[in-house]
Every structure is written in C-alpha cells, then in structure tokens.
TrEMBL record:
Pfam families: Resolvase (PF00239). Residues 17-143 form the Resolvase/invertase-type recombinase catalytic domain. CDD domains: Ser_Recombinase (cd00338). This is Recombinase family protein. It comes from Novosphingobium decolorationis.
C-alpha cells in the first residue's frame, strides 16, 4: 500500500487529529466488519503518526439510506466533531462507507472542507479512481 506524506497535504500540523468511521450495510454482513475496519484504520494511523481522537460506526445501515442523523447516528456524531473544528481529517476504509450517492458525497465534501478538514480514503488514494466520488476527488486534487 502506498502512503502519501500527509505533511504535504496538511502543512503545519504536528499530528493530524483524526476521526475514524466504519459502516456495514446489512444484517447479512459480518457484525465484526466494523471492528475489523476500525482496526485497519487504527493501524494506518499508527503507521502515519496520526492522533485518533474518535471512532464512529453505524451497523446494519446502508449508505444508500442517506446521511441524516436519524438514519446514521454514528456518521452524524462524527460530522459534529469535524464541524466543531475538533478534527483535521476523517479516515474511512472506502468512499462507500461514507456515501453511496454523489449528491450525499458532495454535501459531505462541502461540509468537511468548510470545517477546514479533509477526507482521507486509503482505497481512493492507493487505488484511484473511486467512481461515485469522482467529482469530490477531482475537486480535492485541484484545491
């Protein structure tokens, strides 16, 4: 797995404050899935030297359900931390953990960047492109 030098992406930070987010979609998936995702994310943070300030998850909830607080409480709690300026970045396993629809992806991207944070998705960075996040990813590369 390739690792970007985060110091180039987040200049001036000693150790970016990172929130982790994990989700699995249905009761048919393994409930350990979020635990496994979070462990992988913790490992990435340890390798990069990032400070984990929070872990959030939603279980048996489809990303297609939207991003409203009543549907995805873990996601909403994570965004509250980011929008309060307490986190420098969100780390999640893949774009589909955050959103399944481009409209939701754009809203998330706008809210996170307005808060002065970034979204870091190893699968997109290491295996670009991520189809339904194409517009936000292009905006990140340009900005």
């Amino acid at each position: 797995m390739n690792s970007l030098n985060w110091r180039n992406c987040l200049p001036g930070l000693q150790r970016p404050k990172t929130v982790l987010y994990a989700r699995y979609s249905t009761g048919l998936q393994n409930p350990r899935s979020t635990d496994d995702q979070l462990q992988d994310l913790r490992n990435r943070c340890a390798r990069e030297g990032w400070e984990v300030i929070g872990e959030f998850k939603d279980e048996a909830i489809s990303g297609a359900a939207g991003i409203k607080a009543d549907v995805r409480p873990g996601f909403a709690a994570m965004l509250e931390v980011v929008e309060a300026g307490q986190a420098d970045q969100i780390l999640t396993e893949a774009t589909d953990r955050l959103a399944r629809h481009q409209r939701d992806a754009l809203e998330i991207f706008e809210r996170v960047t307005f808060a002065g944070a970034r979204i870091f998705i190893p699968r997109c960075i290491d295996q670009y492109p991520c189809a339904h996040w194409r517009i936000p990813m292009d905006m990140m590369r340009q900005g």
